[in-house]
Amino acid sequence: MGRTRKPLRAAIIGLGRLGSRHARHLANQVQNVELVAACALDEKQLKWAQDELGVKTTYTNYKDMIDTEDLDVIFIVAPTPFHPEMTIYAINAGLSVFCEKPLGLDLEKVDEMAEVIRSHPDQIFQSGFMRRYDDSYRYAKKIVDDGGIGNIIYMRGYGIDPISGMNSFTKFATEADSGGIFVDMNIHDIDLIRWFTGQEPVQAYGLTSNIAAPQLADIGEFETGVAQLKMDGGVIATLIGGRHAAHGNQVELEIMGSNGWLRVGEHPDLNRVTVFNENGVVRPSLQSFGERFDDAFTDEVQDFVHNVIVGKQPEVTVDDGIKALRIAKACQQSADAGKLVDIRL
Question: Which of 124, 211, 260, 330 would be a feasible disulfide site paired with 149, CB 3.0-4.6 Å?
Fold first, then answer.
């Protein structure tokens, strides 16, 4: 089932904010893989890949790259609407695929993508839920699994970007469909809630606002989204997504148990330094998701490479990606309709 060639020959589609991070990790940190080709529409990004990462060949058409290069694996970090067609093409070409979240925006296309993946069981597909690879979340998961806080009663997940990213997001959402606040921002929190509880949601109620960024209404986006989920085992969960944190990047998870609480990322500290100056007592804060989860991004890709080499399907499956997407869309549907929505996975 697995491939024996080491290092694996890899290509990447997409060299934007996240794609460039994955590309850098593949070129400099991840073992048993060689980044031999890259595809992007921006010539400056392709030149960066050649000059800074030593990528030998670059393309502006992903099909040309897959058809031409001798590849084992491909990393898809392109805009979300293109994920299904790119995955289908790569799987049908015999490649294993790492695809960033979300899997897509059109559920029919995502379902078609899943069928193609399932019809090629000897190829590895992994979805990019990197928070499962973060040491803090893994530590908290072990405490929960060991009964350290009793039964989970309630969970709350924050995913709020810094104000400094507003212009970048506005440009991105003007040029492409982000999927909305819940799909774009809270899909990680949804995955964590399913992972920690082992339960599935049955109802969602969502609310949105643009108080902090009214200009987003012009492109059909919302700055803040809040959703309540009712899980089939009784757990209640709250999702909070936003793009206007003044202090930095706020990614937090709270787990309330019958015998204790856990909070992961309660304070988004950049480091362990406390500054005492004319501004008072200050703790520098993380300013991007990349800073916060850099190790997790590396570890998930290393796990994918290992899975391909040994022929092992990953812990994070295409079904996890589909369920998270359906749940996020139900939250947005509820917010748009102003009523409770039943979830049928």
Answer: 260
